[in-house]
Amino acid sequence: MDQYLLFALLGMGAGAVFAGLGMGLVTVYKGSGVVNFAQASLGLWGAFVFDELRRTGDLVLPVLVIPGRVHLGTSTPLPVALAVGLLSSAVLGGLVHVLVFRPLRNAPTLSKIMASVGILTLLQSLLVRRFGAGSRVVDAVLPSGSLRFAGVELPQDRLWLLGITVVVAGVLMAYYRWSMAGLATRAGVEDEVALLLARWSPNRLAGLNWALGTGVTSLFLLLASPITGLNPASIGTLVVPGLAALLVARLSSVAVAAVAGLALGVLQSELSYMQLQSWWPHSLPSGTTDAVPFVVIVVALVLLGKKLPRRGELVLSRLPAVVRRPLRLKWVLLGTAVVALLAPLLGQAQRNGLIASMVFAVIALSYVVLVGLVGQVSLGQAAIAGVSAFTLARATDGLPFPVSVLLSALAATLAGVVMGAPALRIRGAQLAVVTLAGAVAVEALFLRQISVSGSGLADPELFGLDLAAQRYSELARLPFTYTVLAVLVLCCLLVSRVLNGTTGRRFLAVRSNERAAAAVGVDVARTKLIAFALSSFIAGLGGALLAYSRGSVSIESFNYLAGISFLIFAFIGGITSVGGALLAGLIGPFGLWYVVLDGLVPLGSAYDILGGLTMISTAIVAPEGAAGFYGKAVRNLLSRRTGPARDVAEVPPPADMPAADVPGADTPAADVPGADTPQAAVAAPDAPPVPLSAAEGISGPALEVERVSVRYGGVRAVQDVSMVVRAGELHGLIGPNGAGKTSTLDAIAGFCVSEGAVRIRGTDVSRFSPHRRFGTGLARTWQATELFLDLTVRDNLLVAAQPGSPGDLVNDLVGRARVMKDDAMSALRLLGIEHLADSHPAQLSTGQQKLVGVARALAARPAVLLCDEPAAGLDSAESRELGRHLRTVADTGVAVVLIEHDLSLVLQMCDEVTVLDFGRVIAQGTPEAIRRDPAVMTAYVGDPRTVDPVSQEVQP
Ligand SMILES: Nc1ncnc2c1ncn2[C@@H]1O[C@H](COP(=O)(O)OP(=O)(O)OP(=O)(O)O)[C@@H](O)[C@H]1O
């Protein structure tokens, strides 16, 4: 027991460091909304500066140019060195905010993650350049020696660290609770607009918090350095536990971050003690302690996943745009032929560069699938590629060449799905944290356990043809070059097919808006898992090729730092297109660009610094990457010469533009897909109703809601609401603000936890997820339009028309995907907006967007359509037009539930009306009955009289 106490206290050394990281990360996040992957590097800078001052009296500067250091005298007193060290980190943190994150304030989360990862690599290289790569032993800062307690010698420095952690956490808490700047920072987390109105500058506050956060982290790294030593390479062991503390603290509580950090340190220390015991199962991998943060993160996310707060940012930002355009076969063949003809002409070094470029392009394609198309930021792809490489070296002995590679890639697929599974509830920076922690765990539990030397890898051979990458003096053999080229071409075609097929459409829908995707039947979790699997398979192929090309498998090629470097180059190239991946290959580690540059100036580690700097500037200037940036520039140039380029979406006309002026209006009806169907006859609300709904011919209730209740914590938003809606009925759901209308709709569609029963055409769907409810014939629209901004109007509708089936991916790959264009077009035609099919949502007016939202819900021919204030934001003429459209929809046999504030519109258009107030049904019946119901008028105007439905004036 004494030993457990001792090890618990020993763990406080690392624990205080983790706590310092966690508290610093929370401070930075509170101030700026950035999850700072470079926190440990920024903190280490101050610790190194402090140590260097004490050793040599030199103040080291982070500037890349000379002079890198200023001599301040031979002996610097401890307090001065301490102050200068902390200040260095704080200033560096403030500078990072001003130079990088301030310009990125409104940028997508992806750009912020990439920038902070760029800073991490940049600082790591800087630390090595300025202070050397080795480990430093640091003189004691805190009192050493021990105290005797309960028969155990307790180290004093750990007790001091524990005390300092408590004090710093207390000071930070007091700062956020009582100081004006702290209170303003907390207010900014909720609502930055309000902060601005109160005359606080969010930028200045962010800068202050950056400086404070990095200073706090540096303090703990510095004080604990005599225990932990100082080593630039230790960043890997620091980043993940710090991020784990941040997540456990729900990104907001300094105190919880401190406790979580200390607890992690203690847990790791106790585990390392237990591993020395005879009863410990020694068959467990020795890296178990390094995997602890991953487990903590996974548990934290499972328990807190949906509760993690989001910042009230000024601007909602989007990921870089994706252009869906299939690869043209002639370009693929031409490109392949050029590389194939060029390869024999290159020298060994250049051909090696070509191979490295092609291998890296394959790996970059895996990022295109996961990060570019689904928006899932992964820092763990190198570990996934490593699983394949190590499997190839160890587990596929004796298997023939392509089979061994395919099996290894499948092992990587499995690892990717396992790493991705806990991440299904999250995205953005938190996902990046999980994948980074996962990469460290894979490295500790798997890669390090099966370290393999070069001889472990059998050379590839196909039908007697020697495909080895190297043989004697030949370092880059042609047959291997062609093998890699073939794999790259296949992967490019695969990704292009997926991007342009139904799977890609669904990927982009999930990337754009997860809950809207679920509302149109997309199984979001499955879609993400498919993306993880596909991307891991491609990364696995890349990993196997990388292993062959290097002739050996080493951890350094696949550790978390390699993962970060991979992501950096993939992002610089362009993370949303096949072209971007090819560019990434060109500039990637040891690729052709590196070889050419290295021939001119020896690069060494400067290439990483260059990569980090390029990464940061790419994140700021061109988040779409070099491919997107130059692609756009070329298109602009062409359009200036020849008029608008074809793939740039043209701005559609307003809805009231005459049909003849609409692009494509001169297309004969017979040329429009689906024009020969009966639905094609319907072009306006005045036209006779056309059967569109899957509910055709069904009589009886399409929707039954029975005693549904919804609670948000202490708020009872909906209480025992019941209603029945028949096929072909337009049912109004009205009530004052906050009456519970949207919550009722959310409960029916499965978007909130509720009690009671919901039946669609007799099927009880109360326990179904939203996408399964959609499958039974229930569609909805949203109060905000919630269209998929990355997709055209047609594609928005096609996502709903084809919510997914198990064979879709294979069909996409073999080019046999079914396209339900008719359903999509007939929904657009029904609402008179087929001319908008090729527009992007951002180009449409609010009214047009609302109609597209209704059309999207109709594209799957639902039996029940729930419309949440579709007329909000429209003028009264547009509202009435929309009302007529909905009447037409109901007349096709769809049961329509309409939430609407325009009382006169509801009383005119609807067959039945349900009125809610304070979450309860206060009236139900025909518009006539509702009009006469005094309870309704009391709820609306506090006056028990009736209302004139047209003028909305209260009648005596
Ligand atoms: N996510 C939530 N968490 C806590 N309370 C909520 C949440 N969503 C809604 N509420 C509360 O539940 C009640 C009903 O809200 P709801 O949005 O369903 O009403 P509504 O009739 O649709 O209002 P409006 O017409 O303004 O859209 C309100 O008191 C609201 O503040």
TrEMBL record:
It is found in: Cell membrane. This is Branched-chain amino acid ABC transporter permease/ATP-binding protein. Residues 644-687 are annotated as: Disordered. Keywords: ATP-binding, Cell membrane, Membrane, Nucleotide-binding, Transmembrane, Transmembrane helix, Transport. The chain crosses the membrane at residues 6-26, 80-101, 113-132, 159-176, 205-224, 254-271, 291-308, 329-347, 353-379, 399-423, 429-447, 480-499, 529-548, 560-589, 609-631. It comes from Streptomyces dioscori. Its main location: membrane. It is a multi-pass membrane protein. One of its GO terms (molecular function) is ATP hydrolysis activity.
